[in-house]
């Protein structure tokens, strides 16, 4: 895809947190976006970013951000066109609305607006066409900006892995057990005395989010609303002492019979609609299949596709449903910061008039190409 003549000025809300730091890192040398403003709570505002944030990534804090002053989360304090939100859900809802009302596009990681009927919940390779909801949202709310959400980190890994199966064979039911990394709980997150030498079979609200968000993402845009998919999804979540990378153990009931080899082919051939494969943050392969019997593993596989590929392995028959497999998603990259940045790239590409061929589902749940907007 061609480079743009001028970079778009962008800011980060919640820039000091776990997702905020990933956003800062990924935006520092972005080909389309120029990082101009960083915002967080009153605890951090007024200090240079390097001082206000407790940098936890292994990669160095980028020079472009080091001396930027942290400002309060007020639209007037940020002279940018687009903001990425890594805000705590306790405050994200109203703050993000204020920015959209003030004319900025808000690409959010927070849960507050994900299930609003007029807010697109996007994984570009899966449901780029749902972005049309932005026009519905603006008309309904009288905003000149918008809110575009990405899903919960586990949901992104699950929905992306399910999409090729949905398109090729149809899906009738899903169970997923997650093993979720510590960075998914933000910084400082889970107390070390709780999680060392331990597994915690509870992450508040997570099972419900996985069950509802997956069906919205895999649903079909019909007129001014998304008709969610209707198959049952059952999630069982666990927090494990891994730093980054959520591992999912998935079983699926399919509408059509498929062998593990058929499923592997569907995973490997999956790319997503134009212009998604050419976006700067899109990985060459959204789903990478490992054939070794003991992969994917968080420590070894989470940086596949610079953290943007979902890594699938152990595809085999399931004696209860039809097929089962493991999938790994880097929770703060594909599951959060990278997801929001890729969504912003899609928004910009679509607004720039780059032709988009969408994919819609027929009533049988199979893929049928349809004309782009
Ligand atoms: P986090 O590490 O706790 O960071 C929260 C951020 O929100 C910090 O920058 C904090 O600023 C800011 N904040 C808190 N209270 C505020 C207030 N009253 N006004 C303005 N800013 C305030 O959380 P996180 O893990 O990065 O998660 C951020 C969001 O992304 C959450 O909604 C989370 O559910 C979602 N998410 C997280 C992941 C993940 O893997 N971590 C994945 C997907 C989605 P201060 O430093 O100044 O307090």
Q: How would you describe what is shown here?
A:
The protein is an alpha/beta fold. Helices cover 29% and strands 24% of the residues. The chain is built from twelve helices and 16 strands. The protein has helices spanning 18-27, 49-52, 63-66, 89-101, 124-127, 133-141, 153-169, 192-195, 206-217, 260-269, 298-301, 333-351; strands at 8-13, 33-40, 70-72, 82-85, 105-108, 146-149, 171-180, 220-222, 225-227, 233-239, 246-254, 287-290, 310-317, 323-329, 358-361, 367-370. The protein has a six-stranded parallel beta sheet with strand order 3-2-1-4-5-6, with helices on both faces. Strands 10-7-11-14-13-12 form a six-stranded mixed beta sheet. Helix 1 (18-27) links the parallel strand 1 (8-13) and strand 2. Helix 7 (153-169) packs across helix 10. Mean pLDDT is 94; it is low at 355-373. The chain binds NADP nicotinamide-adenine-dinucleotide phosphate. Residues 14-20, 40-41, 43-44, 73, 86-89, 91-92, 109-111, 152-153, 183-184, 186-187, 331-332, 335-336 line the site of NADP nicotinamide-adenine-dinucleotide phosphate (NAP).
């Amino acid at each position: 895809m061609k480079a743009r003549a001028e970079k778009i000025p962008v800011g980060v809300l919640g820039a000091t947190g776990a997702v905020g730091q990933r956003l800062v890192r990924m935006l520092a040398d972005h080909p389309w976006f120029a990082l101009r403003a960083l915002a967080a709570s009153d605890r951090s505002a007024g200090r240079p970013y390097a001082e206000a944030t407790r940098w936890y990534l292994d990669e160095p804090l980028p020079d472009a951000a080091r001396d930027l002053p942290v400002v309060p989360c007020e639209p007037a304090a940020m002279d940018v066109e687009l903001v990425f939100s890594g805000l705590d859900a306790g405050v994200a809802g109203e703050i993000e609305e204020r920015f959209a009302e003030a004319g900025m596009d808000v690409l959010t990681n927070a849960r507050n607006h994900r299930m609003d009927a007029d807010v697109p919940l996007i994984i570009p390779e899966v449901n780029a066409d749902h972005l049309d909801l932005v026009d519905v949202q603006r008309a309904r709310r009288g905003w000149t900006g918008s809110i575009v959400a990405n899903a919960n980190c586990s949901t992104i890994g699950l929905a992306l892995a399910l999409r090729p199966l949905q398109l090729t064979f149809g899906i009738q039911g899903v169970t997923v057990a997650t093993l979720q990394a510590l960075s998914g709980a933000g910084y400082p997150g889970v107390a070390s005395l709780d999680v060392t030498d331990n597994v915690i079979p509870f992450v508040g609200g997570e099972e419900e989010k996985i069950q509802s968000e997956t069906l919205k993402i895999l649903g079909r845009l019909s007129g001014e609303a998304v008709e969610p998919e209707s198959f049952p999804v059952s999630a069982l979540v666990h927090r494990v002492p891994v730093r980054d990378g959520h591992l999912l153990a998935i079983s699926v009931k399919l509408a059509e019979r498929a062998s593990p080899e058929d499923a592997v082919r569907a995973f490997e051939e999956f790319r997503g609609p134009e212009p998604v494969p050419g976006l700067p943050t899109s990985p060459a392969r959204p789903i990478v299949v490992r054939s070794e019997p003991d992969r994917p593993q968080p420590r070894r596989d989470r940086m596949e596709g610079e953290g943007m590929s979902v890594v699938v392995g152990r595809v085999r028959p399931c004696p209860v449903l039809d097929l089962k497999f493991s999938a790994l998603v880097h929770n703060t990259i594909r599951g959060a910061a990278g997801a929001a940045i890729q969504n912003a790239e899609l928004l910009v590409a679509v607004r720039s008039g780059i032709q988009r061929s969408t994919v819609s589902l027929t009533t049988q749940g199979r893929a049928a190409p349809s004309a782009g907007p």
